[in-house]
Design a protein that fits this description.
It is a single chain. With 388 residues, this protein is an alpha/beta fold. It has 13 helices and 16 strands. The strands form three sheets. A seven-stranded parallel sheet has the order 6-4-1-7-8-9-10, with helices on both faces. Helix 3 links the parallel strand 7 and strand 8. The protein is globular.
């Protein structure tokens, strides 16, 4: 059984293995455990080595590399159009040799795959890894891809989207994501964070350092809290093109002792940060399945995040608070409210967070993939085999 995955995610070659963005790589390993062979049609990364990659552990994966194209500006769009014939030829060749086709959207390569996959005559499934629903500042191409995947064009396939179960319609089925295995969940279950009287509140931001993820809002909120006499320490975990500018912002605001940049880190170290955290903030403009919220909540860490998409559902029932995008002052007020809770209420909130977060594991992701392939597409995948 051969699975072909069409993706916009850049893949890098090093030490005889493929490397990709960590959460994506963890999910691809789950798919690879169900098939004899996996072919990924995606851009091949070149240039500077990003700091947030991890190797695909599955040994049955190969890359049919594409030249990376796209981006803002007329010149880059023209280069993308020039590359499309080559992309389509590679996609068609690989799809016709597959038993199952997976298309990952939103993205330029995913859009090409979403157009071709129904024509290839193979069972096809799309994974929409962004927010399933319109939002302010959304690129028009994302809205078009959602429309295409929810239309008659994809009627014989399945779309895995980050939606609550009650919103499933037509080919669109609910899906979640996780990088936490059962051993990680057991570690979270045992974690017991006890605050020391008078110690600064440990607040986490975990994510790529890009404008869309909202690290700047988190930093400005930390400054506002300290300006009102609140003892907080913000740990910023992640890498990205905004890091230098954000470090300069910290210095300008006199927060060099209150905000610490840790860069990208391995998952084991990240779990240790959750164990020591009091709160997590995620003021991003848009999220599909914000897995850092689930990871933090599994450790009993309440969260504050931008409202919209799945965030309101995740943080509902007293698990956290939601705020407007691009609102550092509103973020600071929400954090302050959680800081001011009586101890009994804080413990109850932590318990609700833990109960929610412990429901989601990477083994559960794989079980849901198997269910969709067998029940929705009639694909008799093999019994799961551990990747690597």
């Amino acid at each position: 059984m051969r699975l072909v995955i069409v993706s916009h995610v850049a893949h890098w070659r090093r030490e005889g293995r493929l490397w990709a963005y960590g959460p994506y790589a963890a999910e691809i390993d789950q798919w690879a455990a169900l098939f004899d062979e996996v072919v990924i049609v995606a851009p091949e990364g070149r240039g500077a080595w990003p700091g947030d990659l991890r190797p695909l552990r599955a040994g049955n994966v190969r890359l049919a590399g594409l030249e990376e194209r796209g981006g803002a500006g007329v010149r880059r769009k023209l280069r993308l159009l020039a590359a499309l014939p080559v992309w389509m030829r590679v996609l068609w060749r690989e799809m016709r040799q597959a038993e199952v086709v997976q298309v990952r959207c939103p993205g330029n390569v995913g859009l090409a795959g979403a157009v071709l996959a129904p024509l290839a005559g193979r069972p096809h499934v799309a994974k929409y890894a962004g927010r399933w629903g319109a939002y302010g500042g959304e690129p028009w191409s994302f809205a078009f891809q959602r429309w295409l995947l929810g239309s008659w064009w994809w009627r014989r396939g399945v779309v895995l989207a980050y939606i609550p179960p009650e919103e499933a319609r037509g080919p669109v089925a609910p899906m979640f994501n996780s990088a936490m295995g059962q051993a990680d969940l057991e570690r979270a279950r045992r974690a017991c964070r006890r605050r020391e009287a008078g110690a600064p509140w440990r607040v986490l931001f975990v994510g790529r350092l890009t404008a869309a993820k909202g690290a700047e809002a988190a930093i400005r909120a930390a400054g506002a809290l300290r300006g009102h006499g609140r003892a907080v320490r913000l740990d910023v975990i992640g890498e990205g093109p905004e890091r230098q500018r954000l470090e300069e912002l910290v210095l300008r605001q006199g927060l060099d002792g209150a905000v610490r940049f840790h860069g990208g880190m391995g998952f084991e170290r990240l779990l240790g940060m959750y164990e020591q955290a009091d709160l997590l903030v995620l003021p991003s403009l848009s999220e599909g399945w914000p897995k850092v919220l689930v990871e933090a909540m599994a450790f009993g860490v309440p969260c504050v995040a931008t409202r919209g998409g799945l965030t309101d559902w995740m943080l509902g029932e007293g698990r956290g608070e939601t705020v407007s995008p691009n609102d550092p002052e509103g973020l600071a007020r929400a954090v302050a409210r959680l800081m001011d809770e009586p101890e009994e209420e804080r413990r109850a909130r932590q318990r609700r967070c833990r109960e929610f977060g412990l429901q989601y594991s990477i083994e559960g992701v794989r079980a849901e993939i198997v269910r969709v392939l067998r029940e929705r597409l009639g694909v008799a995948v093999k019994e799961p085999v551990e990747a690597g």
